[in-house]
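Hi F.,

I've been meaning to write this up properly since the lab meeting, where we talked about keeping a consistent format for the predictions we share between groups. The idea is simple: the sequence comes first, exactly as it goes in, then the structure tokens exactly as they come out, then a line or two of notes. No screenshots and no reformatting. I'm using this chain as the first example so we have something concrete to point to.
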Amino acid sequence: MKSLFDGLHRHRLLVFLLLLAAAGACSLGLKAAFVTNNSLEIWFVDSDPSLKAYRESLKTFGNDEVVSIYVEPKAGILAPKTIELVRRFSDAAERMPFVERVYSLTTVKDFTLQKTKDPEDGSVDEELRVVKLVPNRALTLVERDAIREKLRHDPIYAGWIASKKLSGLMLTVQFKTLPDIDKKRAEFNETVLKLARETFDRAGIESHAAGIQLVYTELNKATDKDVATFAGLGYLVIFVLLVVILRSLWALALSLTVIAVTVVLTMGIFGLTGHQTNVMTLVLPTLVIIVSIADSVHLIQHFRKALATAPNLDRAARAAISPRAMAEMAWPCFLTSATTFVGFLSLCISEMRLLRELGLFAAIGVLFAFVVTFIVAAFLFPILPLKPIDVENGLADRIVARLLRTCRRWVRERPAVILIVFGSVSAVLVVGVLRLEANIYTLGFFPESAKVRRDDRVINERFGPYQPLEFTVEAKQKKNGAITPEFLATLARWQKTSRSLEGIGESFSIAQILQKLNRVNTKKDELPRSMALASQLLDTMGDRDVTDPYLEPVGRSTARVIFKTRLSTGNDARKTIAALYEMGRNLFGDRATIKSVGYWPLYARLVQYARSSQVEGFGLSFAVIFAVFFLLFRSVKLSVFAIIPNIVPVLLALGLMGFRGIFLDMGTVSIASIVICIAVDDTIHLTYQIRRRFESGGDAATVVDDALGSIGFALFATTLILVFGFLVFAFAQISTIRYFGTYLAIAVAGALAADLLLYPVLVVLSHRKRS
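Output, unedited:
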């Protein structure tokens, strides 16, 4: 190991210049890296079957992304001024190139029989016509009353266009399926919302907007703000902490150089490989800053201690000490970096794409931090006028020294009390862990006061469920199978039965359209009694814009059903989908194949991914850390004793989350894996010092006490940096990022307590038993 660092020392200038050149090349990707993208695809890998099914449904029935605008005009929903405003909005929205269609009071279609006179024989025939529910002219009182009755009782309109009390109107803007919609979704949404404000709000009618894609747009905005917050606040916090801990401008310069180069390398490659910032990777730059500091702090402190033994501090002496000090710290720093690397890399087995990206590039950042630390140190140690460490010289040193003396005294005098306290607290925390629930609530990422949540509440309270939950029903009969009397009757029965489910509002399918057509054509308020009649009605009507969203147009064998529901948690969505599916399957039997399509099955699947990510990621991290300790101790028992203190911070974070009712979602699900791999760093450094002293001889109590005294300040320093670094995330606008940072900080603080108290007691007990 010494020869490796002697070689690095000899060629330090060349290696340092190559490092700067690599950083300069990677800097070309920084601009692309900080482009925000919280589209649906960033949550899933391309091979995900649910994502494939979603894309297939878009090809058949079009985009399921809608912006819902709800207004309550004081003049009444059928007042001339209201109709004028709705028509103005609808017409302007339909002219937008990205809009497929608008469902509103002035665009929705009605069916009627119109009498036509044959010019030759004078006979009068009746033809089925598609007309607008509200004509483009002033309404008579009779027409207004007729429309009001239809809005209240007709299944085509009731609960879709107007609220049940007829106090408000819903305008639904459906987007086209476009290849670049993810890049332009925010622009599209803002265009529609601006139109709503200019049309309704300017006229004194408050507009409320909702829709899942609005949630993603708000996530983009919050992500941009959080990136800016973390960039400024993160660097400031780290700068202040390094000043307090290192108390040397030269040591500070070295650490900041390591941070800057590591971040540029990591984020540059992130951008150059086509990745963009999302709700999870927004923490990546700050995360890389935090984890890149530990090695440099340990290395600087060790080098400054080595300087204290030198007869003089000239450049030659520093050059001689530098490779030796780096060689002595290389192995423990490598092990800590390796465990942290694996901890982040374990996230790559997640089925959520955004967690894979975070895990991969955080791991790459850890790898860069290790390499950059030693290259920068090799170049700067011989030339920087760093001073030896003068123990207890400053206030911070005296405080830490006092805390360390207290910990060492407790380890010597109160080992039983330490074991009882940690055991009791851990048992209580296990109860909290058992209360944890894997779940996702994207709307809950925002505070209650956020407009996106206020509008959601208003619409649910005054209009009812509005978010579309879609199913396709494919008849076994391939030709016209979805318009047979039996199929339509079962479809209508399924829709009627669904109202018994909590959170389900109105529903819509081809059954309502055909029943309305039959009622107009035959004066019988029933579904067509034959497939031939249903086919005739559809052909006679001829307006495919009305039927294509609900009936596959080529073979007419697949129908689309839309149930209205609320924006809920992933678990609630999964239960609702399962209940509707089971209800439909029981009614259709083997006569049709039912599939849940659209956004909601994807949303529900995220819960399953969160659960599997927690188990698999933590399991892999645990296995690797155990292997590292076995490599150090060559003993299963001692490895178990070393693992125990690192389970405590995991229990602390997850247990407190469980007691507070915080979900395991895409942000918090990674906490366990990251905690155990970061917490183990101090254990490894302490273990390394203990091993060196055991090799020199001495009893366990003396060895442990001496090791704590030697490395205690560095442990406090790195923990302080990690705690305050993670607490930067507590200022995030997105709740899951706040929880991510807060509970990581709590866990890291708990890890230090376990390393200073519990681990030394276990080491002493294990060696007493061996003796």
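Notes:
The chain has four domains: 1-33+247-390, 63-216, 391-434+601-771, 467-565+567-597.
Strands lie at 66-71, 99-103, 109-117, 124-132, 169-175, 207-210, 467-475, 507-508, 558-565, 592-597.

If this format works for you, I'll send the rest the same way.

G.
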